[in-house]
Design goal:
Length: 188
């Protein structure tokens, strides 16, 4: 058991019979009344975000988590198959554990958060920025250069993203895997 003074971003805790991670927190000491901690928590099992406020020095249960490096192998009817980079054991994970499965490419390195006491996978974290090749997009029209003009494009995993008009088929682009936003064109 720990108390609320140990809350920080990324901390995993047991709350309402579920495992949550702290997304945001704020220690508040009002001029009148006792101090408290206001938090925004995200469930690692279903992704739901909840707000909660605890009085200062309230006891919380911290979950000990481990980050393990895996490699994404393939997807089939059983789920997403990944291989542990140390033991070479393979596991199948459900799509609900991923935030943006459309950006997973075979051979990509990922991290899986495990509950260290129960040996249960909690969530999958992809690299923040990924590089993908554009497989299809309409050619940009010359003279159509108003600011922030974008067009739809298909990347090698089949996902659709928005790219600037100067991007062509075969270009490699950097994408933010959390939001799916185009970041920049990668130089060859």
């Amino acid at each position: 058991m720990a108390n609320t003074s140990e809350i920080r971003n990324g901390l995993c805790i047991y709350f309402n019979n579920d495992v949550y991670t702290v997304v945001e927190f704020l220690h508040v000491k009002p001029g009148k009344g006792p101090a408290f901690v206001r938090t925004k928590l995200k469930s690692l099992t279903n992704g739901k975000v909840v707000d909660n406020t605890w009085p200062s020095s309230h006891k919380i249960d911290i979950v000990r988590v481990e980050r393990r490096k895996y490699q994404f192998l393939y997807k089939d009817g059983e789920g997403y198959h990944c291989m542990d980079m140390e033991s070479y054991e393979q596991i199948a994970l459900q799509e609900a554990m991923l935030t943006n499965p459309q950006f997973l490419k075979e051979g990509m390195g990922i991290e899986i958060l495990y509950d260290a006491e129960k040996e249960v996978p909690l969530t999958i974290e992809m690299p923040q920025y990924i590089e993908m090749q554009i497989t299809y997009t309409e050619p940009g029209v010359r003279g159509d250069t108003a600011t922030n003009v974008t067009k739809p494009a298909t990347i090698e995993t089949g996902a659709q993203i928005k790219v600037p008009i100067f991007i062509n088929e075969g270009d490699i682009v950097k994408i933010d895997s959390r939001t799916g936003d185009y970041m920049e064109r990668v130089k060859k």
